[in-house]
Amino acid sequence: MSGGMDSCVAAAIAEREFEIAALHAGYGQRTETRELECFEALADHFKATARLTVHLDYFTQIGGSSLTDTRMPVGEADLANPNVPNTYVPFRNAHFLSIATSWAEAIRASKIFIGAVWEDSSGYPDCRPAYYDIFNTLIRVGTRPETHITVETPLIHLKKRDIVKRGLELHAPFHLTWSCYRATDAACGVCDSCALRLKAFQEAGVDDPIPYQTRPEYAQLSN
Amino acid sequence: MSGGMDSCVAAAIAEREFEIAALHAGYGQRTETRELECFEALADHFKATARLTVHLDYFTQIGGSSLTDTRMPVGEADLANPNVPNTYVPFRNAHFLSIATSWAEAIRASKIFIGAVWEDSSGYPDCRPAYYDIFNTLIRVGTRPETHITVETPLIHLKKRDIVKRGLELHAPFHLTWSCYRATDAACGVCDSCALRLKAFQEAGVDDPIPYQTRPEYAQLSN
């Protein structure tokens, strides 16, 4: 659970069937402190019976992303641009899934829920559906014969507005989440992540409960 | 490069064709300090033009292995036992490969060499050849379209004795390596890793240059 809206809704879906062990990874991203606070609040909300917080400091050594290299500016949203944005952290989700798999194998958990979104998101290659199919094969081959763990991606084909709607149905605590890539007090409203989030709430016809420095009207821009 | 004999020979193979960027991961294993010293010596030997050392402290939180949980004893070698030994660290190699892939993508490296050994080793599920084929697919799907990285496993089908012979041909600096799971001054000689190593040197008909507390005769036991 990053502390963002997608992992919050994924957790709300998971808790209908499963006891939750909550995993959070900081990786030197700009908004790490705020995301960790949100994670703790969400883990409390979802009554997580175990939680694991890890700090992948080496991502700042590796660099290659504006999220972890403060010399690279986080660009403003350009949702029509088909290229991978500079906020892409090289191969990041494999780290999260590997930690989740190791932990799941050690505590005998059966499912790993992740709030990855493909079609209606930033175009990060490690969010595409085929990636998770392959990872499930990797888990099957790379763990003990008696281990049976699968990664679940309940949001991967949803539009962001439908994630908001699904979250509202499930009473997901959106007020406890954070998505902005840049700021930690009031969300900037204009980075890629804010743009996707504000557009989603606007298209769903509801107010986003978190504070923003500015709330551009994204819905009309994005037909 | 763990600092062990296999990654040393893998590096000796890689350096014939490539400039080396050397990656080492500590993960709270018992012999971490000694392995790190060996890594640094090997990176010097192979004239690595970049090096990255990471500490995956969360493995001690995750547990589930005698290598990272000091309450679980590291067993003595039982090379005939077909079960996964308790030194298996859940899904460990996926962490190493994920870090290597992220770093490779950031520095534009093209190959990841890993000294994994399957048939003639401990039976860890994340050392089998299919695992690396799947990981290569994961990299292809999960990185930028312009990124082309493959994992190379030059030792995976070799017998351990043939890894020793290959290393000798390539003048691999075995004296700079460490394999023991238990001790850091003189290798114990009886853990799984020592047993595989001593047996390999004995079958290759050469002396292992590192110090041992005891050197059982493994070659005769293992036909």
Would you write up a description of this structure?
The structure is a homodimer of 223-residue chains. By secondary structure, chain A is mainly α. Chain A has a single domain (5-180), classed as HUPs (Rossmann fold, 3-Layer(aba) Sandwich). In chain A, 37% of the residues lie in helices and 8% in strands. Chain A has seven helices and four strands; from the N terminus they run αβαβααβαβαα. In chain A, α2 (32-45) links the parallel β1 and β2. The radius of gyration of chain A is 17 Å and the shape is globular. The interface between A and B is large, with 41 and 41 residues.
Structure characteristics:
homodimer; 223 residues; mainly alpha; Rossmann fold; two-stranded parallel sheet; two-stranded parallel ribbon; 4 strands
Secondary structure blueprint with pairings:
Two copies of one chain form a homodimer.
Chain A (H helix, E strand, L loop, with lengths): L4 H10 L6 E6 L5 H14 L4 E6 L2 H5 L29 H16 L3 E3 L15 H14 L7 E3 L7 H10 L22 H13 L19
Parallel strand pairs in A: 1-2, 3-4
Helix pairs in contact in A: 1-6, 6-7
